[in-house]
């Protein structure tokens, strides 16, 4: 089983959110560049991974597309993937002002 959570913010930039999450969780993010997702930030921990990226991603037609169409107000997304539900992680992320929990999926 894999546990996925999506958070969003229109309050913080991706860089600001990286700093906030790094401070709260003691993680180190690395910047990555993807043709599909654009520039995003990745941190891994023993329980899983956290990714921070803009909601607007490069589209095939030269125009930006939204990664999460159902949440256009979220300018920056934070995605978590853990092997099991991590309530401590969710509580710490939930304590970041301006970061809103958007979706949860278990597969």
Summarize the structure.
The chain contains two helices and eight strands; from the N terminus they run E-H-E-E-E-E-E-E-H-E.
What does the secondary structure layout of this molecule look like, with pairings?
Elements: E1 3-9, H1 14-25, E2 30-34, E3 38-45, E4 48-54, E5 56-58, E6 64-66, E7 76-82, H2 87-94, E8 100-106
Antiparallel strand pairs: 1-7, 1-8, 2-3, 3-4, 4-7, 5-6
Annotation field: number of helices:
2
Q: Ranges with pLDDT <50 over ≥5 residues?
A: none
| Total strands | 8
State the helicity in percent bands: 10-25%
Keywords for this entry:
alpha+beta; globular; six-stranded antiparallel sheet; 107 residues; 8 strands; 44% strand
Structure, described:
By secondary structure, the protein is of the alpha+beta class. The chain is 19% helix and 44% strand. It has two helices and eight strands. The protein has helices at residues 14-25, 87-94; strands at residues 3-9, 30-34, 38-45, 48-54, 56-58, 64-66, 76-82, 100-106. The strands form two sheets. A six-stranded antiparallel β-sheet has the order 2-3-4-7-1-8, with helices on one face. Strands 5-6 form a two-stranded antiparallel sheet. Strand 5 (56-58) and strand 6 form a beta hairpin. The model has no long low-confidence stretch (mean pLDDT 92).
């Amino acid at each position: 089983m894999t546990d996925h959570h999506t958070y969003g913010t229109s309050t913080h930039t991706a860089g600001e959110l990286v700093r906030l999450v790094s401070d709260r969780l003691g993680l180190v993010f690395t910047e990555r560049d993807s043709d599909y997702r654009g520039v995003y930030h990745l941190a891994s921990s023993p329980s899983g991974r956290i990714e921070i990226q803009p909601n607007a991603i490069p589209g095939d037609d030269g125009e930006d597309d939204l990664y999460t169409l159902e949440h256009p107000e979220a300018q920056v997304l934070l995605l978590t993937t853990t092997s099991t539900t991590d309530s401590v992680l969710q509580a710490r992320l939930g304590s970041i002002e301006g970061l809103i929990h958007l979706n949860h999926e278990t597969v």
